[in-house]
Design brief:
This protein is α/β, with parallel strands linked by helices and 415 residues long. The chain has 14 helices and 13 strands.
């Protein structure tokens, strides 16, 4: 097969650790094998693996300094500080865009920003750009997942609802995100679910290119599975670990499995909330954070099943990783999870009902033969449908098309 022409590609991101960052690193590693790639990022990003391990990638790290938020009793002024910080971010992004444009790159592959979601860089670039959109800024477009520690004071809830400064900040953030995203030459989403949300928000035609999983990293080891429920993801309200605990709590106590939650990041208040919830419901939960890749792979290999119930998850890389490792999966029937798990074949999809979800977990743990059949089918499904080779072939073709487009050409608009 004829190799496409070699491109000069700039890659930008300002991400913390997590699934989006893992995809970005894979893009860097694989694109650099056939193209000239330079990574542009900020010192606020997770730089632990900002450059892929192999081969070495030219990296430009720009400094960004944000003003600190205030503590009580001046916390009500923090939205003003956030808006000021976004303006500082805009200035920094313009400097980065200037460096990229001066470098005569063919195309820019843009990943999200942890502050604004759609990087403000997109508004300043003259070089054609492809924005790989993992999700919308969810706090601007979705209802917040409620927690007791967020609503413990009625007065604070009332003030949040009617605070004009906070409303002004949220409105401004939405405009900044929209303006930046719609300036991208092309927008690509990670799932059909994300595509529908993004098209609705940005009124732009969006294409889909789901990320892959390197199944070779998750070799089947023949380890004996343990009656343990594993769940993986950042320890935040959106990841639905409270639902997992409540679901396991519906299982009769003498049959109730223990739970292991592995996170790349833990919010202290969420950890305290979940620890208390587990104690109240008599569920044995072990919380682990920032484990090594080897430890994570071992956890997948040993788990009786992966329980996966994030709230409105845009894609859900953890479910694919578990399936690649041959772990039986019970997933919530919503969001992007519905696009990765084939119900009854590669895993089980269940509604967000604690009793029913708990029953599906118990069935998966008790019927080992069925679980192993699903796990084997799941691995084959990942290898054939969610491999990096297919993803990169599609992404490289898109990047070549974008490189040939004139910046500012009319975008296709959703009717």
């Amino acid at each position: 097969m004829k190799r496409m022409r070699r491109l000069r590609i700039a890659v930008y991101h300002n991400l913390h650790s997590g699934g989006a960052k893992r995809v970005t690193v894979e893009h860097l590693r694989r694109l650099s094998a056939h193209h000239d790639v330079t990574l542009f990022t900020l010192d606020t990003a997770d730089l632990a693996f900002a450059s892929a391990d192999e081969p070495a990638i030219d990296t430009v790290v720009m400094p960004y300094s944000a003003a600190r938020v205030l503590r009580s009793p001046f916390g009500r002024l923090n939205p003003l500080i956030v808006m000021r910080n976004v303006k500082r971010m805009d200035q920094t992004c313009r400097k980065v865009a200037g460096k990229i444009d001066a470098g005569y790159f063919d195309v820019v592959l843009v990943h999200p920003c942890q502050m604004t979601q759609a990087p403000l860089l997109l508004s300043a670039l003259h070089t054609p750009s492809l924005y790989y959109c993992h999700e919308l800024p969810r706090r601007l477009y979705e209802p917040e997942v409620q927690r007791p520690y967020k609503v413990d004071k009625a007065r604070r809830v009332f003030l949040d609802r009617y605070d004009p400064i906070r409303k002004r900040m949220l409105d401004a953030m939405k405009v900044w995100d929209y303006d930046a995203a719609t300036m991208a030459t092309r927008i690509v989403a990670n799932s059909q679910y994300t595509r529908a949300n993004v098209e609705r928000a940005y009124r732009r035609t969006v294409e889909v290119c789901p990320p892959g999983v390197d199944a070779n990293l998750f070799q089947l080891r023949g380890l004996k599975r343990e009656p343990v429920v594993l769940s993986v993801g950042a320890l935040t309200p959106n990841k639905g670990f409270d639902f997992i605990i409540r679901a396991v709590a519906t299982i009769e106590e003498k049959q109730r499995p223990s739970v292991v939650i592995i996170s790349n990041y833990q919010e202290p208040q969420e950890l305290a909330f979940l620890t208390d919830l587990a104690g109240q419901n008599k569920v044995c939960v072990t919380f682990k954070t920032r484990v090594s890749e080897a430890e994570l792979h071992d956890a997948y290999a040993r788990a009786g099943c992966l329980a996966y119930a994030p709230v409105r998850e845009p894609f859900g890389l953890a479910a694919l990783e578990a399936m690649a490792a041959g772990a039986p999966v019970v997933g919530v029937n919503e969001g992007g999870v519905r696009e990765t798990i084939v119900d009854g074949v590669t895993g089980v999809l269940a509604p967000r009902n604690a009793a029913e979800f708990g029953q599906r977990i118990l069935e998966m743990l008790r019927d080992e033969d069925r679980a192993e059949r699903m796990a084997a089918a799941a691995r084959k499904h990942v290898v054939s449908r969610f491999n990096w080779e297919g993803h990169m072939a599609r992404l490289e073709a898109m990047l070549l098309e974008v490189a040939q487009m004139r910046k500012g050409a009319p975008a296709r608009v959703v009717a």
